[in-house]
Amino acid sequence: MNASTDIGPLPFEKWQALGNDYLIVERAQLPFELTPARIRKLCAPHFGVGADGVLLLAPSDDPHLVAQLRIYNPDGSEAELSGNGAREAVLYLHRRGWVEGDVFTIHTAAGAITPTILGPHSCRIDMGAASLTSPSFPSGRSTSRTWMGCWRSTCPRSGPRSKATSSSRSAPTSPGTPKPNPTASGHGSSSAGWGRRSPRAPAPPARP
Amino acid sequence: MGPITVALDGGELQVEVGEELQVHLTGWARPVFEGRLSEDFQKELHETE
């Protein structure tokens, strides 16, 4: 009997946030190592399950942290952090009973993040302090922890499309009250990229 | 600053940026599918390096 049958068929969930879809798997249920080639096959839209990436969850070695989250791009590379992916992961953790409280902390490749669960499908995440310094904007304001890789809305078919309105007190569009852009292309239609890096490290790739 | 509601193709995201550039994101996410890999596909993945 090989390792693929020792544990049985791998259970997974597919989540989406703002059209950014991820497969969520728990490391304890993986019958194999999650290599880049396997991630590419899992994420392949026609030959695999199809997703914008994989969220891998595991218990944290730190007792103060609920879990460790690793985020993989569909090409198999690892992303430091994704706002959409992080929301999916923390809501999954809460829904699956990894944590009872509504405020907790998890570890990511970009450091610890602290979400607050607002409802079954809604949460607020403290992403840390941003730094506006980047390789292409070295004179930007910098703080100690985080590098804001990019904020962007992308639409593969028709280019950037986003609109920001300030002072809105209304909650963001929720699954129960969908208000998507009718021209959205779906796959990879929107996401907020985020990266945290050391001062000398190269900029991480932005999430699509 | 904020909160600012950013309208994206897939919906809206609320962004708050504090004085020290502390950033909070508020938004939604939802499950769309629960399943298991088929034995054939899992075998294919297992045979993949």
Summarize this entry quickly:
The complex is a heterodimer of chains A (208) and B (49). Chain A has helices at residues 3-6, 36-43, 83-95; strands spanning 11-17, 20-26, 54-58, 68-72, 78-79, 81-82, 106-108, 111-119, 122-129, 163-166, 193-194.
Task: Write out key terms for the chains shown.
heterodimer, A: 208 residues, alpha+beta, Diaminopimelate Epimerase, Chain A, domain 1, 5-stranded mixed sheet, 3-stranded antiparallel sheet, 11 strands, 12% helix, 26% strand, globular, B: 49 residues, 1 helix, 16% helix, elongated
Explain what the structure shows.
The complex is a heterodimer of chains A (208) and B (49). With 208 residues, chain A is of the alpha+beta class. Chain A has a domain at 3-127: Diaminopimelate Epimerase, Chain A, domain 1 (Roll). In chain A, 12% of the residues lie in helices and 26% in strands. Chain A has 3 helices and 11 strands. In chain A, strand 7 (106-108) and strand 8 form a beta hairpin. Chain B has one domain (4-46). Chain B is built from 1 helix and 4 strands, in the order ββββα. A 3-stranded antiparallel beta sheet of chain B has the order 1-2-3, with no helix packed on it. In chain B, a hairpin with a 4-residue loop joins strand 2 (11-17) and strand 3. The chains are: A alpha+beta (208), B alpha+beta (49). The interface between A and B is large, with 79 and 45 residues. Strand 1 (11-17) of chain A pairs antiparallel with strand 4 of chain B.
Strand and helix map with partners:
The complex is a heterodimer of chains A (about 210) and B (about 50).
Chain A: H1 3-6, E1 11-17, E2 20-26, H2 36-43, E3 54-58, E4 68-72, E5 78-79, E6 81-82, H3 83-95, E7 106-108, E8 111-119, E9 122-129, E10 163-166, E11 193-194
Parallel strand pairs in A: 2-3
Antiparallel strand pairs in A: 1-2, 3-4, 4-5, 6-11, 7-8, 8-9
Chain B: E1 4-8, E2 11-17, E3 22-28, E4 30-36, H1 39-46
